[in-house]
Design goal:
Elements (H helix, E strand, L loop, with lengths): L1 E3 L2 E2 L7 H4 L2 E3 L5 E3 L31 H16 L3 E8 L5 E8 L7 H18 L6 E6 L10 H6 L4 E10 L2 E11 L3 E6 L4 E6 L3 E6 L3 H6 L1
Parallel strand pairs: 6-7
Antiparallel strand pairs: 1-2, 1-7, 3-4, 5-6, 8-9, 8-12, 9-10, 10-11
Length: 221
């Protein structure tokens, strides 16, 4: 479950709910991330261009270590038939945390997929050994509130509800939530719910963004 000096400790199937991550359902029940990942009506597949396609390029800057690990592991994940959606890396004083968010192109990864990928990715990290010291490795699905990193991610949810955090204050705030009205080559426009105004945010200003799945709308259908 954890790794010391870049080495993975063995883990068993009983560890998978912890290792693969979890999200909370509408009733507060814990649901394994890997069970339900496809977002109804949203297709996150990049297309045939692969890594060279402009739509597949990352437009939101990640932690430098996270970007390095995407560069290392992304091609290996693709060869297994999946995609490395994003990487989260948090450095601690005694132990760091590395979370790999993996999905099938178009969504719909299952718990069995995560169980199969976890040892493969762990072994690759053993070989590359990019992180110094102890760290905890978690392989998870992106969940319904999927992070938006690539240009294609934003285009896939155009018209949907998103949440965006910025590096610097825009109009006195660093957090925005509302309908994604437009996606351009350099940034997005969001119909911000708290202010009732349309706000333009450059990609370089985005600290983090994710799709906000509308549970209420899904229940009404």
């Amino acid at each position: 479950m954890a790794a010391a000096l870049g080495r993975r400790f063995p883990w068993t199937e009983s560890d998978c709910d912890w290792r693969c991550g979890a999200r909370l359902g509408r009733g507060g029940e814990e649901v394994p991330r890997g069970v339900t990942t496809a977002v109804p009506g949203v297709n996150f597949a990049v297309g045939d261009g692969g890594a060279t396609d402009s739509h597949s390029r990352a437009v939101v800057r990640l932690n430098p270590m996270a970007e390095r690990i995407i560069e290392m592991l992304g091609p290996h994940v693709e060869r297994q038939g999946y995609e490395l959606v994003s990487v989260e890396y948090h450095k601690g004083t005694r132990s760091s945390m590395l979370r790999l968010l993996v999905d099938r192109p178009g969504g719909g990864i299952g718990l069995d997929d995560l169980e199969r990928l976890s040892p493969i990715l762990g072994d690759l990290l053993d070989v590359y050994d990019p992180i110094e010291g102890r760290y905890t490795l978690e392989v998870a699905s992106p969940g319904l509130n999927r992070p938006l990193v690539r240009l294609a991610d934003f285009e896939a949810v155009r018209g949907g509800r998103v949440r965006i955090k910025t590096h610097h204050a825009l109009e006195g705030r660093k957090a925005f939530v509302g309908r994604l009205a437009d996606v351009g080559a350099d940034g997005v426009e969001i119909d911000d719910e708290p202010s009732g105004r349309r706000v333009r945010i450059e990609f370089g200003e985005i600290k983090g963004a994710n799709y906000e799945y509308d549970f209420d709308a899904a229940e009404r259908k």
